[in-house]
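Students often ask why we bother predicting the structure of a whole assembly rather than each chain alone. The short answer is interfaces. A chain on its own may look different once its partners are present, and contacts between molecules only exist in the joint model. In this exercise we take two input lines together and write out one structure for the complete complex. Read the inputs first and try to guess which parts will touch.
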Amino acid sequence: MQAGLLDTYQRPTRTRGAIAWVLSAVITTFYLLLYLPGSSFTPNFPDVLTPISTWMHLPSKWFLYGLLYSILMVGGGVAMLRRHGNSNYHRIRTVTVVSVQIVLGFSLPLVLKLLDKPELYLTYVWPLSYDKLFPDTLAGLPAAAAIYFVVMSLIGFPLLAWRYGKRFYCSWVCGCGGLAETFGDPWRHLSDKSNKAWRIEQYSIYTVLGLVLLTTGLMIGDGVSRAGLVGEAKYAPAIAVSTQLASLSEAVGQGARTDLPAVASEVSAQVAELNPPSWVTDKVKEVDAAAAKGEAPAVSEAIKNLAYSVMPEGKLGPLAHKAKAFYSFFIGAMFSGVLGVGLYPLMGTRVWCRFGCPMAALLGLMQKLGRFRIAVKKDMCISCGNCSAYCEMGIDVRAYAMGNMDVRRASCVGCGMCAHVCPRGVLRLTSAADAGPGAKVGEWMVDL
Amino acid sequence: MHHLVIGNSIAGIEAAITLRRRDPAARITVVSAESDHPFARTALMYVFCGQLRHEDTEFYDRGLYERMKFERVRARVVSVQPGEHAVTLDDGRTLNYDRLLLAVGSAARRLPMPGAYDDPPVHHFVTRKDYEALDAAAKPGKRAAVIGGGLIGVEVAEVLHQRGLKVHWLVREPWTWPVALDPKEAGVVEEHVRHEGVDVRTAAAVNGMTRGAALTLDVNGEALEVDLVVGAIGVVPNTGFLANSGILLARDGSIETGDDLQSTSSPDVFAAGDCACVTWADGARRPETLWYTGRDQGRAAAAAMVGDSVKYRRGTWYNSAKFFDLEYTTAGFVPISDTAGRKHPGGGHWQTWFQKHPTEAATLRIILKDDRVVGFNALGRRWSTDVWLRWVHERRSLAFVLANLAESTFDEEFMAPFPVLPTATLEEGA
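Now the answer. The structure tokens for the assembled complex follow.
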């Protein structure tokens, strides 16, 4: 099915040549400039992207990132289809994943932001978007959105993975997967195929899933314990402040209060009475910053956040917030962002998806229980190695094909490239019900 | 017990692995002149064009020999003395064995026309050495003639064309690959390959070649100037070194074996893969030059070597191939058309159902005998040979097969089903 031959190994950009190293350094630098400023661990790192996004009249640096991301996906998608676009599967999949990025990954949040509504990234649910089940995240969302994220995270997406394989997400919807499948396509063959990589993968991906479960558990535990404190008299002042902050947030949001600096100092004064921990005072600074810029919606949102944060803290609070800060910086920013994309030209496109992504881990387990598989045609493999070479997840597809075994692997993202490059049509992705065994090849003979 | 395996391609290495599984304590030696690690020569074309690296074609990890405790010998066997249970290597050493497996494969059939092997000789594309020589000689912009209308011929034509050579594909027969395709199917292949920019010439007999500044071929009496020639007219068993060994060879040079793949003349000598003469479903005796039968024969021979009762039979024919972007799938009994057109394969009532896809380069041919389906031949689309073979064995009718055709599709998802149209033809004969 592959149209023409690929000249992969004749291109220095695709074979870890000097250009690939330079490109990797450029991407890594960009991601460091994106994630380091304002992070819990490097709060004072100089921010060069926000001024650029302001100059471009974008609401924040994240929209600048989203714009660049979308452009890379469109350009990469066109290039990908020039290589592999003789296949309906790749055409439909690529157009879908790029459209999802442009519409749900960029345009919808931008429009919502411009309408002063919460930015919703509907395709990012827990556990990839690790904070989507945190009580303070859900509290800050409109009820419908909160229900959507809970249901999709716990039921919707896992069920789809059971029915169609995790490819429905990883190769058709997810932004990380989308970038890998388009912009990253030239480097898919660089995935590490060694047994060692496979052993590391098994530990690392479930470790990250464990970390996200732990952090989420702590945050939910903290929320529950705080809710249990509401009736107690000694917490009355904090609850009173929280209530006042909530009404202030509403007033600013509805335009009833426009004297933002005055609002900010009121907020500071009220919170100061509670003798708050540092992660609460950090949120006061966010209110001050928004007020200084004169952005009413941002002020309203920051106060709303604060209203939640000043609520009495349970015993889990400090630990939960440390876990969150750790996960957010080391996994969310450094692993999935900086390494995940920065290593494209050197280690292939799915480093994060394969070794880290908790969503891939969770949906992979559903996939393993479910219907999706790569069906192998019996006794037809010529051992050429194209399938394994072009597997971005480092799966040794050839070993399955040579052994007449269907491929049922939790890690498979269903990109379809193994089947596409197979010169003998041995492989077929399917999530149809298993029809049972075909003929036992070689056991009978046609008698004429 | 010392098992000596000559050849480390699919037949030899699968035999060695089976031997190790069956006999953990045996001494197993694997001899190869070609490579340290088994590799898929089926993928030489992909290494040539840069789609794969050589190491990607190695179908087992490099720890295999150590894990399996195989002794690796890198040498060429120059003679076998079955009486002494010994082989002689090109470095002068002698190896003794208790059981010997000859899995020495095949080599390119030499071109018969005068001048072919004058200096510089023509190229072939079967071994790694062939690959290296062609890789060095094939420079973009040069002119190449590929002689031979089969699978290796079209693969070489494709990779040379992709590298930027001007390629003339010279097929002696009236259409390409007549052993597998009928004229209509071959027409689709030829049109497709021509469309890619290759000069396809059928009924093109190369009568000789002369060397001057360039190579000049005499093609049907006309001169064709090229810079290099690749001979791809099939393979012959790589058994020249057995000529005086006393091991019985068939007329085509393959090693005569019994049902247990043991040499019919020399006890304790076995053969598997391209070099072994085996019995086909139709009773004919010749080698099966296929990758997966090499694997199966290797495993069967190994079982026989450790004393199992073995009867190797391949079963109903099926195969697949690829012509540039066109995949080819066949299963069951598809008679070979002779050069005059259709050929009646024997008694009974034979019919042929045929349809070309209205818009794609895709065809489907179904062979019927006495109103039941006995064979399939298809280009373009992907089909499940498992399902086709089941239908053949279940003696299905044409109506059943056409009604259930979608069940046998193996295309990527989102492909429209191969349409069954009124334009399909059902002709007498096969």
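Check your guess against this: Chain A has three domains: 8-205+328-360, 230-313, 361-430.
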